[in-house]
Amino acid sequence: VRVSFQELSTVSPKAEVCIVGSGAAGLPLALKLVAAGARVLLCEGGATDFTARSQALYRGEVIGDPYVPLDVARLRYFGGSTNHWGGWCRPLDAYDFEAKAAAPVTAWPIGKAELDPFAAEAGSILDMTPLPADRPIPGSGLKQVHISITPPARLREKYADEVARTPGLLFCLGANLFGFQVSGERITAAIFRAYDGSERVVPARYFVLATGGIENSRLLLWSNRQAAGAVVPKAEALGRYWMEHPHVTLGEALVTAPERLGLDRSDLAFLAPQPATIAELGILNCGLRLHRTDYTGVDRMIADLSCSAPALGRRLARLRGRRLLCGALLRAAWEQEPRHDNRIELDTATDALGMPRPRLYWRKSELDAHTAKATALALGRYLLDQDIGRVRLEPWLAAEDVQFPGEGEIAGRHHMGGTRMGRSATDAVVDADCRVFGRDNLYLAGSSVFPSVGHANPTLTLVQLSLRLAEHLRMRLAGSRPPPGFPLSGH
Amino acid sequence: MPSGDGRTAVQGMSRRAFIRAWAVAGGVLLAGGAAGWRGVSAGGNVVMPPSRRLAAAPVLVNGWLLRPADRERGFPL
After folding, report:
1. What is the interface pTM, i.e. ipTM, of the complex?
2. Which residues of chain A are within 8 Å of residue B76 when distances are taken between CB atoms?
3. Which of B11, B47, B77 to mutate to test the interface with A (most CBs of A within 10 A)?
4. pTM to 2 decimals?
5. What whole-number distance in Å separates Cα of residue A187 and Cα of residue A17?
6. CB environment A429-452: b (16+ within 10 A), e (fewer)
7. Which chain B residues touch A312 with a CB distance below 8 Å?
8. CB spacing of B71 vs A392 below 8 angstroms
9. pLDDT tens column, A249-301
Protein backbone atom coordinates (compact mmCIF):
# COMPACT_ATOMS: atom_id res chain seq x y z
CA VAL A 1 0.00 0.00 0.00
CA ARG A 2 1.60 3.25 -1.11
CA VAL A 3 1.81 6.17 1.26
CA SER A 4 3.13 9.60 0.45
CA PHE A 5 6.04 11.31 2.16
CA GLN A 6 3.58 13.76 3.67
CA GLU A 7 1.64 10.89 5.24
CA LEU A 8 4.69 9.22 6.76
CA SER A 9 4.41 10.60 10.27
CA THR A 10 0.70 9.85 10.34
CA VAL A 11 0.77 6.22 9.30
CA SER A 12 4.13 5.14 10.60
CA PRO A 13 3.14 4.61 14.26
CA LYS A 14 1.19 1.63 13.04
CA ALA A 15 4.30 -0.04 11.65
CA GLU A 16 6.26 -2.48 13.73
CA VAL A 17 9.30 -2.65 11.49
CA CYS A 18 10.69 0.22 9.45
CA ILE A 19 12.90 -0.98 6.60
CA VAL A 20 15.00 1.53 4.69
CA GLY A 21 15.83 0.43 1.17
CA SER A 22 13.82 -1.65 -1.32
CA GLY A 23 16.58 -3.57 -3.10
CA ALA A 24 17.66 -7.19 -2.91
CA ALA A 25 18.08 -6.96 0.87
CA GLY A 26 15.12 -4.81 1.90
CA LEU A 27 12.33 -6.02 -0.36
CA PRO A 28 12.50 -9.77 0.40
CA LEU A 29 12.84 -8.92 4.10
CA ALA A 30 9.71 -6.77 3.98
CA LEU A 31 7.64 -9.31 2.09
CA LYS A 32 8.64 -12.19 4.36
CA LEU A 33 7.89 -10.19 7.49
CA VAL A 34 4.50 -9.15 6.17
CA ALA A 35 3.73 -12.74 5.19
CA ALA A 36 4.44 -13.66 8.82
CA GLY A 37 1.88 -11.12 9.97
CA ALA A 38 4.11 -8.16 10.78
CA ARG A 39 3.19 -4.59 9.93
CA VAL A 40 6.01 -3.13 7.91
CA LEU A 41 6.88 0.30 6.58
CA LEU A 42 9.23 0.05 3.59
CA CYS A 43 10.94 3.34 2.76
CA GLU A 44 12.71 3.86 -0.55
CA GLY A 45 14.69 7.01 -1.24
CA GLY A 46 14.24 6.82 -4.98
CA ALA A 47 11.17 6.68 -7.18
CA THR A 48 9.59 3.83 -9.13
CA ASP A 49 11.97 4.55 -12.00
CA PHE A 50 15.47 5.90 -12.44
CA THR A 51 15.83 9.62 -11.77
CA ALA A 52 19.04 11.58 -12.12
CA ARG A 53 18.33 13.49 -8.93
CA SER A 54 18.12 10.37 -6.79
CA GLN A 55 21.05 8.69 -8.50
CA ALA A 56 23.25 11.75 -7.92
CA LEU A 57 23.02 11.12 -4.18
CA TYR A 58 25.33 8.14 -4.72
CA ARG A 59 28.23 10.23 -6.00
CA GLY A 60 31.41 10.01 -4.03
CA GLU A 61 35.17 10.17 -4.19
CA VAL A 62 37.42 7.13 -4.57
CA ILE A 63 40.97 7.18 -3.23
CA GLY A 64 43.41 4.38 -3.97
CA ASP A 65 43.22 1.88 -6.80
CA PRO A 66 41.23 2.73 -9.94
CA TYR A 67 37.56 1.99 -9.42
CA VAL A 68 34.26 2.59 -11.14
CA PRO A 69 32.36 5.79 -10.27
CA LEU A 70 30.27 5.13 -7.20
CA ASP A 71 27.08 6.51 -8.72
CA VAL A 72 27.13 4.07 -11.63
CA ALA A 73 27.85 0.93 -9.63
CA ARG A 74 24.50 0.93 -7.78
CA LEU A 75 20.96 2.07 -8.62
CA ARG A 76 18.86 4.20 -6.29
CA TYR A 77 15.20 3.47 -6.96
CA PHE A 78 12.55 0.83 -6.28
CA GLY A 79 14.21 -2.57 -6.65
CA GLY A 80 17.66 -1.08 -6.12
CA SER A 81 20.54 -2.56 -8.03
CA THR A 82 18.52 -5.61 -9.05
CA ASN A 83 17.42 -3.26 -11.83
CA HIS A 84 20.78 -3.75 -13.52
CA TRP A 85 22.49 -6.75 -11.94
CA GLY A 86 23.71 -9.70 -13.99
CA GLY A 87 21.74 -12.45 -12.25
CA TRP A 88 24.67 -14.70 -11.32
CA CYS A 89 24.05 -16.74 -8.19
CA ARG A 90 26.16 -19.10 -6.15
CA PRO A 91 26.24 -19.71 -2.39
CA LEU A 92 29.42 -19.15 -0.44
CA ASP A 93 31.47 -22.25 0.29
CA ALA A 94 31.34 -23.65 3.81
CA TYR A 95 34.98 -22.77 4.33
CA ASP A 96 34.31 -19.16 3.36
CA PHE A 97 32.75 -18.75 6.80
CA GLU A 98 35.88 -19.96 8.55
CA ALA A 99 39.14 -18.21 9.33
CA LYS A 100 41.52 -18.71 6.42
CA ALA A 101 45.16 -19.12 7.37
CA ALA A 102 46.32 -16.24 5.18
CA ALA A 103 43.85 -13.81 6.76
CA PRO A 104 42.08 -15.07 9.89
CA VAL A 105 39.92 -11.95 9.87
CA THR A 106 37.83 -13.74 7.20
CA ALA A 107 35.93 -15.67 9.91
CA TRP A 108 32.17 -15.19 10.20
CA PRO A 109 30.43 -15.60 13.57
CA ILE A 110 27.99 -17.96 11.86
CA GLY A 111 28.49 -20.97 9.64
CA LYS A 112 27.01 -21.90 6.30
CA ALA A 113 24.48 -24.09 8.09
CA GLU A 114 22.87 -20.92 9.44
CA LEU A 115 22.08 -19.76 5.90
CA ASP A 116 21.33 -23.08 4.21
CA PRO A 117 17.69 -23.22 5.41
CA PHE A 118 17.05 -20.05 3.38
CA ALA A 119 18.87 -21.08 0.22
CA ALA A 120 15.86 -22.45 -1.65
CA GLU A 121 13.66 -19.46 -0.85
CA ALA A 122 16.39 -17.00 -1.78
CA GLY A 123 17.04 -18.92 -4.97
CA SER A 124 13.37 -18.73 -5.86
CA ILE A 125 13.28 -14.97 -5.29
CA LEU A 126 16.27 -14.57 -7.60
CA ASP A 127 15.03 -17.06 -10.25
CA MET A 128 18.10 -19.20 -9.65
CA THR A 129 18.52 -22.64 -11.19
CA PRO A 130 19.64 -25.59 -9.05
CA LEU A 131 23.39 -26.08 -9.15
CA PRO A 132 25.25 -29.38 -9.64
CA ALA A 133 27.67 -30.36 -6.91
CA ASP A 134 31.22 -29.09 -7.15
CA ARG A 135 33.55 -31.59 -8.86
CA PRO A 136 37.10 -31.99 -7.56
CA ILE A 137 39.67 -32.24 -10.33
CA PRO A 138 42.10 -34.95 -9.19
CA GLY A 139 45.69 -33.90 -9.02
CA SER A 140 45.00 -30.20 -9.42
CA GLY A 141 44.03 -28.92 -5.99
CA LEU A 142 41.16 -27.27 -7.85
CA LYS A 143 37.51 -28.10 -8.32
CA GLN A 144 34.98 -27.31 -10.98
CA VAL A 145 32.24 -25.13 -9.54
CA HIS A 146 28.98 -23.84 -10.94
CA ILE A 147 27.19 -20.52 -11.01
CA SER A 148 23.52 -20.05 -11.81
CA ILE A 149 23.34 -17.81 -14.86
CA THR A 150 19.76 -16.97 -15.68
CA PRO A 151 17.97 -13.86 -16.92
CA PRO A 152 18.37 -11.61 -13.87
CA ALA A 153 15.39 -11.27 -11.58
CA ARG A 154 14.24 -7.65 -11.60
CA LEU A 155 12.63 -7.41 -8.18
CA ARG A 156 10.79 -4.20 -9.07
CA GLU A 157 8.87 -5.89 -11.88
CA LYS A 158 8.56 -9.18 -10.05
CA TYR A 159 7.09 -7.79 -6.83
CA ALA A 160 5.49 -4.45 -7.76
CA ASP A 161 1.96 -5.85 -7.69
CA GLU A 162 2.56 -7.70 -4.47
CA VAL A 163 3.93 -4.58 -2.81
CA ALA A 164 0.96 -2.55 -4.00
CA ARG A 165 -1.66 -5.05 -2.86
CA THR A 166 -0.26 -6.56 0.31
CA PRO A 167 -2.11 -5.58 3.46
CA GLY A 168 0.27 -4.79 6.26
CA LEU A 169 2.95 -3.38 3.97
CA LEU A 170 3.21 0.38 3.76
CA PHE A 171 5.50 1.56 0.98
CA CYS A 172 6.82 5.09 0.68
CA LEU A 173 8.93 6.42 -2.18
CA GLY A 174 11.13 9.51 -1.97
CA ALA A 175 11.85 8.87 1.71
CA ASN A 176 15.52 9.66 2.24
CA LEU A 177 16.86 8.56 5.59
CA PHE A 178 18.66 11.43 7.29
CA GLY A 179 19.18 10.27 10.86
CA PHE A 180 17.83 8.54 13.93
CA GLN A 181 16.47 9.55 17.30
CA VAL A 182 17.83 7.55 20.21
CA SER A 183 16.70 6.95 23.77
CA GLY A 184 18.75 4.69 25.98
CA GLU A 185 19.68 1.57 24.04
CA ARG A 186 16.85 1.95 21.56
CA ILE A 187 16.32 3.81 18.35
CA THR A 188 12.99 5.55 18.81
CA ALA A 189 12.51 7.06 15.37
CA ALA A 190 14.00 7.45 11.94
CA ILE A 191 14.18 10.89 10.36
CA PHE A 192 13.47 11.15 6.65
CA ARG A 193 14.16 14.22 4.55
CA ALA A 194 12.67 15.32 1.23
CA TYR A 195 14.52 17.37 -1.37
CA ASP A 196 12.70 20.53 -0.23
CA GLY A 197 14.21 20.07 3.22
CA SER A 198 11.03 18.98 4.94
CA GLU A 199 11.39 16.12 7.37
CA ARG A 200 9.22 13.35 8.79
CA VAL A 201 9.92 11.59 12.07
CA VAL A 202 8.95 7.95 11.91
CA PRO A 203 8.72 5.84 15.05
CA ALA A 204 8.82 2.04 14.92
CA ARG A 205 9.77 -0.87 17.12
CA TYR A 206 12.53 -2.13 14.90
CA PHE A 207 14.58 -0.44 12.24
CA VAL A 208 16.45 -2.15 9.44
CA LEU A 209 18.93 -0.35 7.23
CA ALA A 210 19.13 -2.05 3.82
CA THR A 211 20.59 0.64 1.64
CA GLY A 212 23.62 -1.04 0.10
CA GLY A 213 27.29 -1.67 0.69
CA ILE A 214 28.28 1.98 0.78
CA GLU A 215 25.13 3.72 1.97
CA ASN A 216 24.72 1.55 5.07
CA SER A 217 28.11 2.82 6.23
CA ARG A 218 27.53 6.40 5.13
CA LEU A 219 24.11 6.69 6.75
CA LEU A 220 25.35 5.24 10.02
CA LEU A 221 28.46 7.42 10.03
CA TRP A 222 26.31 10.49 9.41
CA SER A 223 23.61 9.49 11.89
CA ASN A 224 26.25 8.77 14.47
CA ARG A 225 27.91 12.13 13.96
CA GLN A 226 24.60 13.95 14.35
CA ALA A 227 23.70 11.96 17.47
CA ALA A 228 27.13 12.34 19.09
CA GLY A 229 27.84 8.63 18.82
CA ALA A 230 24.51 7.42 20.15
CA VAL A 231 23.43 5.48 17.05
CA VAL A 232 26.48 3.21 16.88
CA PRO A 233 28.02 3.55 20.33
CA LYS A 234 30.93 1.25 19.52
CA ALA A 235 31.99 2.46 16.10
CA GLU A 236 35.63 1.34 15.83
CA ALA A 237 34.84 -0.84 12.83
CA LEU A 238 32.14 1.33 11.26
CA GLY A 239 32.92 1.91 7.60
CA ARG A 240 35.97 -0.38 7.79
CA TYR A 241 36.83 -3.67 6.08
CA TRP A 242 35.14 -2.64 2.86
CA MET A 243 35.61 -5.22 0.10
CA GLU A 244 35.04 -5.98 -3.54
CA HIS A 245 35.52 -8.95 -5.82
CA PRO A 246 38.44 -7.86 -8.00
CA HIS A 247 37.88 -9.01 -11.58
CA VAL A 248 40.86 -9.35 -13.88
CA THR A 249 41.87 -11.23 -17.00
CA LEU A 250 44.85 -13.25 -15.83
CA GLY A 251 45.92 -14.77 -19.13
CA GLU A 252 44.91 -17.62 -21.37
CA ALA A 253 45.30 -21.34 -21.78
CA LEU A 254 45.70 -24.01 -24.42
CA VAL A 255 44.08 -27.28 -23.39
CA THR A 256 44.07 -30.69 -25.07
CA ALA A 257 41.62 -32.28 -22.62
CA PRO A 258 38.86 -29.71 -22.13
CA GLU A 259 36.64 -32.30 -20.43
CA ARG A 260 38.98 -32.27 -17.43
CA LEU A 261 38.06 -28.63 -16.84
CA GLY A 262 34.42 -28.78 -17.83
CA LEU A 263 35.05 -26.97 -21.11
CA ASP A 264 33.74 -29.82 -23.27
CA ARG A 265 30.07 -29.13 -22.60
CA SER A 266 30.16 -25.40 -22.11
CA ASP A 267 32.01 -22.40 -23.44
CA LEU A 268 32.38 -21.15 -19.88
CA ALA A 269 33.76 -23.17 -16.98
CA PHE A 270 34.42 -22.13 -13.39
CA LEU A 271 37.23 -23.47 -11.24
CA ALA A 272 38.16 -22.71 -7.65
CA PRO A 273 40.82 -23.90 -5.22
CA GLN A 274 39.93 -26.66 -2.82
CA PRO A 275 40.19 -25.73 0.87
CA ALA A 276 43.45 -27.66 1.29
CA THR A 277 44.91 -25.68 -1.59
CA ILE A 278 43.79 -22.41 -0.04
CA ALA A 279 45.58 -23.37 3.16
CA GLU A 280 48.70 -24.73 1.49
CA LEU A 281 49.19 -21.84 -0.90
CA GLY A 282 48.28 -19.23 1.72
CA ILE A 283 45.63 -17.65 -0.44
CA LEU A 284 41.99 -16.65 -0.21
CA ASN A 285 39.18 -18.08 -2.33
CA CYS A 286 39.37 -17.44 -6.05
CA GLY A 287 37.02 -18.17 -8.91
CA LEU A 288 38.77 -18.88 -12.20
CA ARG A 289 36.62 -18.33 -15.28
CA LEU A 290 37.65 -20.08 -18.46
CA HIS A 291 35.99 -18.68 -21.57
CA ARG A 292 36.48 -20.91 -24.58
CA THR A 293 37.89 -18.97 -27.50
CA ASP A 294 37.36 -19.50 -31.21
CA TYR A 295 40.07 -20.95 -33.45
CA THR A 296 41.35 -17.51 -34.33
CA GLY A 297 42.24 -17.15 -30.69
CA VAL A 298 43.83 -20.59 -30.63
CA ASP A 299 45.97 -19.71 -33.65
CA ARG A 300 47.11 -16.50 -32.03
CA MET A 301 48.05 -18.34 -28.85
CA ILE A 302 49.99 -20.98 -30.77
CA ALA A 303 51.84 -18.26 -32.66
CA ASP A 304 52.70 -16.53 -29.40
CA LEU A 305 53.82 -19.75 -27.77
CA SER A 306 55.94 -20.67 -30.77
CA CYS A 307 58.14 -17.66 -30.13
CA SER A 308 59.19 -19.23 -26.82
CA ALA A 309 58.84 -22.93 -27.57
CA PRO A 310 58.95 -23.58 -31.34
CA ALA A 311 58.79 -27.38 -31.17
CA LEU A 312 55.88 -27.27 -28.79
CA GLY A 313 54.17 -24.76 -31.03
CA ARG A 314 54.53 -27.03 -34.05
CA ARG A 315 53.10 -29.95 -32.10
CA LEU A 316 50.13 -27.91 -30.95
CA ALA A 317 49.53 -26.60 -34.45
CA ARG A 318 49.13 -30.18 -35.66
CA LEU A 319 46.58 -30.85 -32.91
CA ARG A 320 44.75 -27.66 -33.80
CA GLY A 321 44.52 -28.89 -37.38
CA ARG A 322 42.75 -32.00 -36.11
CA ARG A 323 40.55 -29.90 -33.83
CA LEU A 324 42.06 -31.53 -30.75
CA LEU A 325 43.06 -28.29 -29.10
CA CYS A 326 40.94 -25.84 -27.12
CA GLY A 327 41.83 -22.28 -26.26
CA ALA A 328 40.45 -20.37 -23.28
CA LEU A 329 40.64 -16.89 -21.87
CA LEU A 330 41.54 -17.09 -18.20
CA ARG A 331 39.72 -14.61 -16.00
CA ALA A 332 39.33 -14.46 -12.25
CA ALA A 333 37.08 -12.98 -9.60
CA TRP A 334 38.43 -13.51 -6.14
CA GLU A 335 37.98 -12.93 -2.47
CA GLN A 336 39.54 -9.65 -1.51
CA GLU A 337 41.45 -9.54 1.75
CA PRO A 338 39.39 -7.80 4.45
CA ARG A 339 41.56 -4.87 5.48
CA HIS A 340 40.93 -2.23 8.11
CA ASP A 341 42.32 0.47 5.81
CA ASN A 342 39.77 -0.14 3.04
CA ARG A 343 36.94 2.03 4.25
CA ILE A 344 34.08 4.43 3.79
CA GLU A 345 34.43 7.87 5.33
CA LEU A 346 32.35 11.03 5.22
CA ASP A 347 33.59 13.66 2.80
CA THR A 348 33.46 17.39 3.39
CA ALA A 349 31.32 17.80 0.27
CA THR A 350 27.61 17.31 0.74
CA ASP A 351 24.81 16.02 -1.46
CA ALA A 352 21.53 17.70 -2.40
CA LEU A 353 20.00 16.71 0.93
CA GLY A 354 22.86 18.23 2.92
CA MET A 355 24.46 14.92 3.88
CA PRO A 356 28.23 14.41 3.52
CA ARG A 357 29.10 12.39 0.45
CA PRO A 358 30.96 9.09 0.84
CA ARG A 359 34.68 8.83 0.33
CA LEU A 360 35.92 5.33 -0.48
CA TYR A 361 39.48 4.24 0.29
CA TRP A 362 40.11 1.07 -1.69
CA ARG A 363 43.33 -0.74 -2.48
CA LYS A 364 44.19 -4.27 -3.35
CA SER A 365 46.86 -5.93 -1.22
CA GLU A 366 49.84 -8.21 -1.70
CA LEU A 367 47.62 -11.08 -0.60
CA ASP A 368 45.13 -10.16 -3.32
CA ALA A 369 47.91 -10.38 -5.91
CA HIS A 370 49.19 -13.63 -4.44
CA THR A 371 45.69 -15.16 -4.51
CA ALA A 372 45.21 -14.38 -8.19
CA LYS A 373 48.69 -15.44 -9.28
CA ALA A 374 48.94 -18.61 -7.19
CA THR A 375 45.54 -19.83 -8.38
CA ALA A 376 46.44 -19.24 -12.02
CA LEU A 377 49.74 -21.05 -11.50
CA ALA A 378 47.94 -23.95 -9.81
CA LEU A 379 45.96 -24.40 -13.01
CA GLY A 380 49.11 -24.03 -15.08
CA ARG A 381 50.97 -26.64 -13.08
CA TYR A 382 48.05 -29.03 -13.32
CA LEU A 383 48.11 -28.74 -17.10
CA LEU A 384 51.86 -29.29 -17.04
CA ASP A 385 51.73 -32.27 -14.69
CA GLN A 386 49.02 -33.92 -16.75
CA ASP A 387 50.53 -32.89 -20.08
CA ILE A 388 47.19 -31.55 -21.21
CA GLY A 389 47.99 -27.93 -21.92
CA ARG A 390 49.83 -24.76 -21.03
CA VAL A 391 48.88 -21.47 -19.37
CA ARG A 392 50.12 -18.00 -20.26
CA LEU A 393 50.00 -15.27 -17.65
CA GLU A 394 49.51 -11.64 -18.61
CA PRO A 395 52.81 -9.74 -18.37
CA TRP A 396 51.77 -7.75 -15.30
CA LEU A 397 50.91 -11.01 -13.51
CA ALA A 398 54.06 -12.80 -14.60
CA ALA A 399 56.17 -9.97 -13.18
CA GLU A 400 57.89 -10.38 -9.84
CA ASP A 401 56.17 -7.30 -8.46
CA VAL A 402 52.54 -7.61 -9.51
CA GLN A 403 50.89 -4.30 -10.39
CA PHE A 404 47.24 -4.69 -11.32
CA PRO A 405 46.03 -3.07 -14.55
CA GLY A 406 44.35 0.26 -14.01
CA GLU A 407 41.62 -0.26 -16.56
CA GLY A 408 39.35 -3.01 -17.79
CA GLU A 409 37.03 -4.98 -15.58
CA ILE A 410 38.53 -3.80 -12.27
CA ALA A 411 35.88 -5.38 -10.06
CA GLY A 412 32.41 -6.88 -9.93
CA ARG A 413 30.58 -3.78 -8.66
CA HIS A 414 30.00 -5.81 -5.51
CA HIS A 415 29.99 -3.45 -2.53
CA MET A 416 30.60 -5.46 0.62
CA GLY A 417 31.70 -4.87 4.18
CA GLY A 418 31.81 -1.57 6.04
CA THR A 419 29.39 -2.77 8.71
CA ARG A 420 30.77 -6.25 9.16
CA MET A 421 29.31 -8.98 11.29
CA GLY A 422 31.40 -10.28 14.18
CA ARG A 423 31.58 -11.43 17.74
CA SER A 424 32.53 -8.12 19.31
CA ALA A 425 32.35 -4.42 18.57
CA THR A 426 36.12 -4.12 18.51
CA ASP A 427 36.23 -5.38 14.93
CA ALA A 428 32.59 -5.53 13.88
CA VAL A 429 29.45 -3.40 13.73
CA VAL A 430 26.68 -6.01 13.96
CA ASP A 431 26.37 -9.27 15.83
CA ALA A 432 25.44 -12.65 14.41
CA ASP A 433 21.78 -11.53 14.23
CA CYS A 434 22.71 -8.47 12.14
CA ARG A 435 21.91 -6.23 15.10
CA VAL A 436 24.10 -3.20 15.75
CA PHE A 437 26.23 -3.78 18.83
CA GLY A 438 24.85 -1.84 21.77
CA ARG A 439 21.51 -1.07 20.10
CA ASP A 440 18.52 -3.25 20.86
CA ASN A 441 16.39 -2.53 17.82
CA LEU A 442 18.66 -1.40 14.98
CA TYR A 443 19.53 -4.01 12.33
CA LEU A 444 21.44 -4.02 9.07
CA ALA A 445 20.67 -6.03 5.95
CA GLY A 446 22.73 -6.52 2.82
CA SER A 447 26.28 -7.34 1.85
CA SER A 448 27.64 -4.57 4.09
CA VAL A 449 27.53 -7.09 6.94
CA PHE A 450 29.77 -9.63 5.18
CA PRO A 451 32.97 -10.15 7.21
CA SER A 452 34.51 -11.86 4.18
CA VAL A 453 33.27 -12.50 0.70
CA GLY A 454 34.44 -15.77 -0.86
CA HIS A 455 34.48 -15.64 -4.64
CA ALA A 456 30.74 -16.13 -5.21
CA ASN A 457 28.54 -13.29 -6.38
CA PRO A 458 27.02 -11.76 -3.25
CA THR A 459 23.31 -11.38 -4.03
CA LEU A 460 22.18 -14.88 -3.09
CA THR A 461 24.00 -14.71 0.23
CA LEU A 462 22.61 -11.31 1.12
CA VAL A 463 19.07 -12.44 0.35
CA GLN A 464 19.62 -15.50 2.53
CA LEU A 465 20.76 -13.19 5.33
CA SER A 466 17.66 -11.02 4.87
CA LEU A 467 15.34 -14.02 5.09
CA ARG A 468 17.17 -15.16 8.20
CA LEU A 469 16.80 -11.67 9.66
CA ALA A 470 13.07 -11.79 8.89
CA GLU A 471 12.82 -14.98 10.92
CA HIS A 472 14.72 -13.37 13.78
CA LEU A 473 12.46 -10.31 13.79
CA ARG A 474 9.35 -12.47 13.50
CA MET A 475 10.34 -14.26 16.67
CA ARG A 476 11.09 -11.02 18.46
CA LEU A 477 7.77 -9.60 17.39
CA ALA A 478 5.97 -12.73 18.52
CA GLY A 479 7.25 -12.08 22.00
CA SER A 480 6.17 -8.47 22.07
CA ARG A 481 3.33 -8.16 19.61
CA PRO A 482 0.46 -5.81 20.49
CA PRO A 483 -3.12 -7.05 20.17
CA PRO A 484 -3.77 -7.88 16.52
CA GLY A 485 -6.56 -6.61 14.37
CA PHE A 486 -6.13 -2.89 13.99
CA PRO A 487 -6.24 -1.91 10.33
CA LEU A 488 -3.62 0.06 8.53
CA SER A 489 -4.73 3.29 6.96
CA GLY A 490 -5.10 3.21 3.23
CA HIS A 491 -6.47 -0.35 3.10
CA MET B 1 58.90 -27.80 3.69
CA PRO B 2 56.29 -28.85 1.21
CA SER B 3 54.15 -25.87 0.55
CA GLY B 4 51.61 -27.08 -1.95
CA ASP B 5 53.40 -26.55 -5.17
CA GLY B 6 56.06 -28.98 -3.99
CA ARG B 7 58.62 -28.18 -6.58
CA THR B 8 59.99 -25.08 -5.00
CA ALA B 9 59.94 -26.60 -1.57
CA VAL B 10 61.82 -29.75 -2.47
CA GLN B 11 64.16 -28.36 -5.04
CA GLY B 12 67.67 -29.50 -4.26
CA MET B 13 66.49 -31.92 -1.61
CA SER B 14 67.63 -35.54 -1.69
CA ARG B 15 64.99 -38.20 -2.03
CA ARG B 16 65.73 -39.38 1.50
CA ALA B 17 65.35 -35.86 2.85
CA PHE B 18 62.20 -35.41 0.86
CA ILE B 19 60.61 -38.55 2.27
CA ARG B 20 61.51 -37.46 5.77
CA ALA B 21 60.04 -34.03 5.16
CA TRP B 22 56.80 -35.45 3.89
CA ALA B 23 56.49 -37.80 6.82
CA VAL B 24 56.84 -34.81 9.14
CA ALA B 25 54.31 -32.84 7.12
CA GLY B 26 51.76 -35.62 7.22
CA GLY B 27 52.04 -36.39 3.55
CA VAL B 28 51.74 -39.83 2.03
CA LEU B 29 53.97 -41.28 -0.62
CA LEU B 30 51.93 -42.73 -3.43
CA ALA B 31 54.18 -44.40 -5.93
CA GLY B 32 57.72 -44.84 -7.00
CA GLY B 33 59.76 -46.63 -9.60
CA ALA B 34 59.61 -45.73 -13.22
CA ALA B 35 56.90 -43.17 -12.66
CA GLY B 36 59.08 -41.41 -10.17
CA TRP B 37 58.13 -40.48 -6.67
CA ARG B 38 54.90 -38.69 -6.04
CA GLY B 39 53.45 -37.39 -2.84
CA VAL B 40 50.10 -36.24 -1.67
CA SER B 41 49.56 -33.67 1.02
CA ALA B 42 47.33 -34.14 4.01
CA GLY B 43 44.79 -32.10 2.08
CA GLY B 44 44.76 -34.51 -0.80
CA ASN B 45 46.72 -32.54 -3.35
CA VAL B 46 49.37 -34.24 -5.40
CA VAL B 47 52.33 -32.01 -4.89
CA MET B 48 55.42 -34.10 -5.39
CA PRO B 49 56.91 -34.28 -8.82
CA PRO B 50 59.06 -37.29 -9.67
CA SER B 51 62.59 -36.74 -8.55
CA ARG B 52 63.71 -36.57 -12.14
CA ARG B 53 61.49 -33.56 -12.60
CA LEU B 54 63.07 -31.65 -9.77
CA ALA B 55 65.67 -30.32 -12.09
CA ALA B 56 62.98 -29.45 -14.59
CA ALA B 57 60.87 -27.14 -12.47
CA PRO B 58 58.38 -25.07 -14.45
CA VAL B 59 59.58 -21.76 -15.74
CA LEU B 60 57.76 -18.68 -16.90
CA VAL B 61 58.85 -17.76 -20.41
CA ASN B 62 57.16 -14.70 -21.86
CA GLY B 63 54.28 -15.45 -19.53
CA TRP B 64 53.95 -19.11 -20.56
CA LEU B 65 54.35 -21.61 -17.76
CA LEU B 66 56.58 -24.20 -19.42
CA ARG B 67 58.89 -27.04 -18.71
CA PRO B 68 62.41 -26.29 -19.82
CA ALA B 69 62.03 -29.29 -22.12
CA ASP B 70 59.15 -27.57 -23.92
CA ARG B 71 61.66 -25.29 -25.57
CA GLU B 72 63.66 -28.18 -26.93
CA ARG B 73 61.52 -31.15 -27.76
CA GLY B 74 57.93 -30.09 -27.91
CA PHE B 75 54.77 -31.04 -26.11
CA PRO B 76 55.01 -34.64 -24.81
CA LEU B 77 51.52 -35.84 -25.50
Report:
1. 0.86
2. 387
3. B77
4. 0.87
5. 12
6. bbbbebbbbebebbbbbbbbbbbb
7. 66, 70-71, 74-75
8. no
9. 999 999 999 999 999 889 999 999 999 999 999 999 999 999 999 989 999 99
